[in-house]
Amino acid sequence: MTTKKKPKVYVTRKLPDAVETRMRELFDAELNIDDRPRTKDELIEAVRSVDVLVPTVTDRIDAEVIDEAGPQMKLIASFSNGTDHIDVEAAARRGITVTNTPNVLTEDTADMTMALILAVPRRLAEGARVLTDNPGEWAGWSPTWMLGRRIHGKRIGIVGMGRIGTAVARRAKAFGLSIHYHNRKRVNPATEDELEATYWDSLDQMLARVDIVSVNCPSTPATYHLISARRLALLQPTSYIVNTARGDVIDETALIKILREGKIAGAGLDVFENEPAVNPKLVKLANEGKVVILPHMSSATLEGRIDMGDKVIINIRTFIDGHRPPNRVLPFR
Ligand SMILES: O=CC(=O)O
After folding, report:
1. Which of 9, 84, 213, 243 has its Cα between 20 and 30 A from that of 115?
2. What is the pLDDT of residues 231-269, one digit of tens each?
3. 106-293 has the same fold as 8-104+302-329
4. 8: closest CA among 52, 72, 54, 69?
5. Is 246 annotated in the active site?
């Protein structure tokens, strides 16, 4: 009996122990135990010799990296839902398959989106700081102190009604929000009925009428600055915007401007346009209580990360066995 040579798999970040153990068993895996983000030169060196690259959203797998891939490198199995950090087009040109890890982080991301939808109008982050910033002092209840805005009965406008957008809508409905959405196409009538959702063909019209905007679409060339300066100006002064998708879907400079001018009431952001850099003006706005900012952690649960690892492993194994991997990502055309 001949034993098949294990594929050489290069993993760019530390993964949960259970995933790494399985990867060691199945593959000739080069893991990143100390979790130091890899440099571009290290990525280039890796793709010259490995069979499979397992990047995360913190790596930029652009055409320069892909063009250095050796002829044996045929798969990029990303440990992520989004694939905007990979030049999928360049990979396709080189005959390299790209896969991702959809579905398994839908509920976690929707939970965190809902947490921001609650946290910003109800001033949760500000309130949480009061006692820790003033130890031993009780700066608490008074009839006019720390008043937020009610969520129940308001209108949410979901931009991108895919898996995550729909999961956000289910939660929002349970909190008494009425559901409005804009999407490239209408969701099926059963889902619309279940959510009692109103579809807006015109994003502009929806933005002008809702109280809370939730951005839940992927970052693609078509959604870059979808929430532009012009569209941000359509929002009501009492409205809030929450983004757990990708930073570049919103024109961040324009968002900062309208927040500083008080033209909207606040924002909750888990993602940033120039991530990992966070604009210091946003940090200042957070300190002033106008925004809640989180370090890209909407999908960060142990269960989710293990499920993502399982998906990566299934994609690699299926591909190595000569089949089409279940989560193949095609270039946007
Ligand atoms: O943002 C996280 C992901 O796309 O996995």
Report:
1. 84
2. 999 999 999 999 999 999 999 999 999 999 999 999 999
3. yes
4. 52
5. yes
Q: Which of 30, 89, 275, 328 is catalytic?
A: 275
Q: Where in the chain are the domains?
A: 8-104+302-329, 106-293
CA 111 / ligand 1 centre spacing (Å): 14
**DSSP assigned state of 206:** H
131: Cβ–Cβ under 8 A, 6 or more apart, which residues? 137, 138, 139
Q: Cα–Cα distance between 134 and 150 in angstroms, integer?
A: 27
Q: How far apart are CA 251 and CA 156, in angstroms?
A: 20
User: What are 253's two structure tokens?
Assistant: 């400079």
| Whole-structure pTM value | 0.95
Q: HEC states along 143-192?
A: CCCCCCCCCCCCEEEEECCCHHHHHHHHHHHHCCCEEEEECCCCCCHHHH
**Burial (Cβ within 10 Å: 0-12, 13-18, ≥19) of residue 184:** exposed
The yes-or-no answer on residue 85 being catalytic is: no
CA atoms within 13 Å, Cβ hemisphere of 151: 21
Sheet holding 266-269, edge to edge: 198-199, 178-182, 155-159, 212-215, 240-243, 266-269, 291-293
Q: Which two tokens stand for residue 165?
A: 């957008």
The interface predicted TM-score (ipTM) is: 0.95
pLDDT the model gives residue 2: 56
For this structure, is 137 an active site residue? no
For residues 159 and 7, what is the distance between their CA atoms, to the nearest angstrom?
40
Q: Which of 246, 252, 273, 305 is catalytic?
A: 246
Q: Work out the end-to-end distance of the chain between its first and last CA atoms, rounded to an integer number of angstroms.
A: 45
Distance from the alpha carbon of residue 84 to the mean position of ligand 1, in angstroms: 9
Return d(Cα 298, Cα 244) in angstroms, integer.
7
pLDDT value for 139: 79
